[in-house]
Amino acid sequence: MTSARIHELSSHAGHPVTVRGWVAHTRSSGKIAFVILRDGTGLLQGVLSKKELPAELWERFGQLTQETSIALTGTVRAEPRAPGGYEMHVSDLVVLGPSPDFPIQPKEHGTQYLFEHRHLWLRSRRQVAIARVRHEVVQAIRDFFHERGFTLVDTPILTGAIGEQAGELFSTDYFDLGKAYLAQTGQLYVEAAAAALGKVYCFGPTFRAEKSKTRRHLTEFWMVEPEVAWNDSDDNMRLQEEFVSYIVARALERRAEDLKELERDTAPLERVRPPFPRISYTDAVERLRGLGSDMEWGQDLGGDDETLLAQEYDRPVFVFNYPKGVKAFYMKENPADPRTVLNDDCLAPEGYGEIIGGSQREDDYDRLLARIREQGLDPEAYRWYLDLRRYGTFVHSGFGLGVERTVAWICGIPHIRETIAFP
Ligand code: 4AD
Ligand code: MG
Fold this sequence. Notes:
By secondary structure, this protein is α+β, with helices and mostly antiparallel strands. It has helices spanning 55-62, 111-116, 118-121, 125-147, 187-197, 233-254, 256-261, 267-270, 281-290, 303-310, 365-374, 383-387, 403-411; strands at residues 16-28, 32-38, 43-49, 69-78, 86-97, 151-152, 158-159, 171-173, 179-182, 199-207, 220-229, 278-280, 317-320, 343-348, 353-360, 396-402. The structure holds 4-amino-1,4-dioxobutan-2-aminium adenosine-5'-monophosphate (4AD) and magnesium ion (MG).
């Protein structure tokens, strides 16, 4: 017997086929019974007729509970009224794995309960839709860079130096050689690779030991980090707006059904096209104060400030040239105003906040060394990084986009934790 996944059923119409999956739902009139099967690609309505089936097979239908795994065999035809658009006239039903008292019922459960049962909760329609959008976003990321001649360079997860902020490091014993840190970023390594290959990116898990329980923070998240030789900060922002627009367009084009399942209003996403508005940090502070914020020049933008500012625009916005004091050591000093650096944060609309942090890198050996010392970092740990400024230093820029924040925004879901299978 041919077996098929539900999304392939259109090419099996009129022919007998077997579909394996899990029971989502059953109902019976006593003479006709329906079983809704899901297999990860869609939903199939199986129809069983009591008078056409052996009594023993009809009995088996009665034992089906939510999430029982089964094989259904029968002839399929298009049925627009059926969930999923196909219906199977069932001639055989085999129970593969019973499922007594599935812990997640189609009723409201608390968040804590759902996360304790995350391994089972993943099967719900909403979680499946989010997983598919995430997959599309990841695929779009890879395609975007591949199409533009970037080379993927995988960077280490166990690292010897601080990549971003000393206060947010996970460390672990590294044999008898001291401490190793879980990577906060692959950036320093892709800077080295950019001098070898020109346009590169890394894409992997990154770690921040922030105990902040916000809807925007995870301790383990995925970040994609391109790095481009000869790009200055303006080129960097142009690459970012093209990149973000590309990802959003792909999700709209290929995951429309999932966004519908998530009840996402896609109108704000349709507006995501270059160019994105740009506002300097200094102007942003003025603007925010005018909107009622009490933030002052020199402070970082908080989550509420980001939301307030982003509300002023109909698409993502760049805030550029932040004060040195609130940004990482590697950002290039702004020659026009040395209190600031040549960086940008890209803020998503609708309250999702910063999805990208990027900058032009300090390419001057002495300035970089001074910044490393100022921040109390050990220059010895950055010797190789400083070498990049000793041997053919070059203007270069790059950025990091957080996958989970981007997926949460595209899906329109309130919390980042549902965008990764096991947060
Ligand atoms: O702004 P961040 O810290 O920048 C860097 O790590 C740079 N090294 C990137 C680069 O220039 N190559 O982080 C970049 C992005 C943020 O904008 C956000 O989307 C995401 O990574 N991010 C987090 N996502 C979830 N949970 C956290 N705790 C995150 N911290 C950062
Ligand atoms: Mg940042």
